[in-house]
Specification:
Number of strands: 0
Radius of gyration: 19 Å
Mean pLDDT: 86
Oligomer: single chain
Shape: globular
Low-confidence stretches: none
Order of helices and strands: HHHHHHHHHHH
Helix content: over 70%
Number of helices: 11
Largest sheet: none
Number of domains: 1
Distance between the termini: 22 Å
Structural class: mainly alpha
């Protein structure tokens, strides 16, 4: 099979920014863990690690809905069906909005049983609750921040998508430093930093789509069910791919909490952070 240089350039132009972007998505939790761990010790670091599967679930929902919509968007656009392509953007936006409201409500009202199921107890529980409550208020920012990026990539904006994620990541670092170390806001500060970082990524994504004239919420009622079915059916795979590494994290956290307590969870957190970067790099090849 003959592969010309232009094909290679196009391949790496899309793949390299994607790898870097997915690697950054895995580092968000590391940043919070670093600042919290140095300020609050094992209890804070273990609380962030216990909470992370909930945060990952929220982001995985955004990834699944965004990629499900973006794939069908690209198919319809390649067929020259521009109205159909916009319909996929609209239904993805409505689904992201609906899941934002649903997940915000669930986390706000049921965070205590969720965290206990994940292994939080003792000093970890109130710290984890403090963190996840702030995160829940920013659920929409996280879902749209991760869900709109696939549309940017499929519109030829891989580099812009990377820049938007880098900007959000840098914002997270700056605010983590200010909120956690300078202003000593603890778990609340770390959660705010994460939410603000994801919010900036969402604003970049919205700006790109508006500039391209591709952001829309318009869809006829009779098109809602078939479009929803298409997006959800395709989105299940990227959702599962994004969420699957956290299943082992939840299991290990539970055993660590039972046999080693806060210190054991904190130790494994450092290992899990390194693993998450490698997995994110491989995921970026999608």
């Amino acid at each position: 099979m003959n592969i010309n240089k232009q094909d290679v350039r196009i391949f790496f132009r899309y793949v390299l920014p994607s790898i870097f972007s997915f690697a950054l998505s895995g580092i968000y939790s590391i940043v919070d863990g670093y600042f919290i761990g140095n300020r609050l010790g094992d209890a804070g670091l273990s609380a962030v690690t216990i909470v992370y599967p909930i945060v990952a679930f929220i982001q995985a929902v955004g990834t699944g809905l965004g990629m499900g919509g973006a794939i069908y968007f690209s198919i319809e656009r390649a067929r020259g069906q521009d109205k159909e392509a916009n319909r996929l953007i609209a239904i993805a936006n409505w689904l992201m909005l609906g899941f934002s409201v649903l997940l915000t409500t669930l986390v706000l009202f049921y965070n205590a049983p969720m965290l206990k199921l994940l292994g939080a107890s003792g000093n970890m529980l109130p710290l984890a609750q403090e963190y996840i409550i702030i995160i829940s208020f920013g659920t929409g920012l996280q879902i749209f921040g991760t869900g709109l990026v696939p549309f940017i990539r499929n519109l030829g904006g891989s580099s812009f998508a990377m820049i938007s994620m880098v900007s959000g990541f840098a914002t997270n670092i700056v605010f983590d430093y200010l909120f956690v170390w300078v202003w000593e806001q603890g778990m609340t500060g770390a959660a705010l930093a994460t939410v603000l970082g994801q919010g900036l990524t969402m604003l970049f994504a919205l700006a790109y789509l508006f500039r391209k004239g591709r952001f829309t919420m318009k869809i006829h009622l009779d098109q809602v069910l078939p479009a929803t079915s298409s997006v959800v059916r395709v989105g299940l795979a990227p959702f599962g791919l994004a969420m699957s590494p956290n299943i082992s994290l939840m299991i290990i956290n539970r055993f660590s909490a039972s046999y080693g307590g806060e210190s054991a969870i904190a130790v494994y957190a450092c290992i899990a952070y390194m693993i998450s970067i490698n997995l994110a790099d491989f995921t970026g090849h999608r």
